[in-house]
């Protein structure tokens, strides 16, 4: 039984726990961004200020991708 417990823990449980931790942290960050955006809208802030504030939550590499799509227009 010790062998099966070790196999179960190392091959199944530990990878599942690691994946759940990653998903949990990204979900918490997403909800923080949503709450910050809603509070800013409720406070009546300028949409461009809100955009910059919410971009500050992102990694710099992701911010660079968003800056290519400035203006909020739909392409096409």
The secondary structure category is mainly alpha
Assembly status:
single chain
Q: What pattern of helices and strands is seen along the backbone? A: HHH
User: What radius of gyration results from the CA coordinates?
Assistant: 20 Å
- Please report which band the strand proportion falls in: under 5%, 5-15%, 15-25%, 25-35%, 35-45% or over 45%: under 5%
Question: Quick one: how many beta strands?
Answer: 0
Give the helix proportion (percent range). over 70%
| Global geometry | elongated
Supply the number of helical segments.
3
The residue-averaged pLDDT reads: 86
pLDDT below 50 for ≥5 consecutive residues: which ranges?
none
Distance between the termini: 62 Å
Please outline the major beta sheet: none
Layout of helices and strands:
Elements: H1 2-43, H2 47-55, H3 60-67
Helix pairs in contact: 1-2
Question: How would you describe what is shown here?
Answer:
The protein is mostly helical. The chain contains three helices and no strands. It has helices at 2-43, 47-55, 60-67. It starts with a helix and ends in a 9-residue tail after the last helix.
List keywords for this structure.
76 residues, mainly alpha
What is this structure, in a nutshell?
With 76 residues, the protein is mainly α. The longest helix has 42 residues, at 2-43.
